[in-house]
# Entry
Amino acid sequence: MKILLLGDYSNVHWTLGQGLRALGHDVCVASDGDNWKNYPRDIDLKRPSMGRLSSLRYYIGLWRQFRRFRGYDVVQLINPVFLPLKAQRIKPFYQFLRRHNKKVYLGAFGMDHYWVRTCLDGTTFRYSDFNLGSQIRHSQENDTWIANWLNGPKGRLNCRVAQDCDGIVSGLYEYHMCYMPHYPEKTQFIPFPIDIRQRQPRVRQSDGSVHFFIGIQRQRNAYKGTDIMLRALERLQSSYPTRVVTEKAESVPFEQYCRMMDDSHVLLDQLYSYTPAMNALMAMAQGLVVVGGGEPEAYDLLGDTDLRPVVNVLPHEDSVYDALEQLVLHPERIEDLSRKSIQYIEKFHDHIKVAQEYLDFWNKA
# Structure
């Protein structure tokens, strides 16, 4: 099968592509590397700048490149906004892909119209990036996303693509719940892919001190709850100065991030999530214990009743602090949770198993 994976978030498409190649398929990953994260890709679609002349050259170059994107059995888009362009300018690129390829699929992997819309209903999720119960989490950043995605040009593009495409793949419980009510017959949940061999799994053991790791994206600090988790971690460091070691990574490239993380026992990640996403899954594959989203609904969607390694926390500082303190007071738990984390990735997220699930869905659809 000839497959084009267009755009990338959190290394999802590159990892999926590696799994598909291992199964003997012809795969091309074209993306901008997800900005400063600089994920690997076969074709670089990075936009050099936002200047007028540079933008014009980029736009012309994109069309030259897209003329080669013909004759694929499957094209999968990482998001409705799969290019670093305004939504209005992306529509003709989508129409081109639709005309010149057999099937086009949409990834439900991150920020989009249906995610914002579902979070704002105040009932589907007890908490999320946009709500705490019925209360909307207003901020300048959130309000901008709401304006763009709910009724703005990005939202209109999203609805058009979702209605028109051949199928929709959701990568997390949350995203699955956003699309299923609207497109039940063409939405399929498939876990995110992780290349376990690249992650070099190692069961973590504590010698009495616990090493915590937290990644900080300056532009999304409050949105992801990193600010609250960091405050809880700093409190813990103050309470147990000889038993807590803290490592922070601020907006570093992907490979550097992985190297920094590998010396730790515990990762703090995504306070408002029900599910471990790619960052947490990669950490679990390396044997780290994840403190973050691990709600029962997410495990139920996977069909798991026993293997639940994520230290689940509620979206407030005291819940995070209490969970971290328990790991410091009982460091023997780390070895067991570390081992279960690796088993969890092997069972549900192995990139070759996941790639086969994609092939089954694409062929069925």
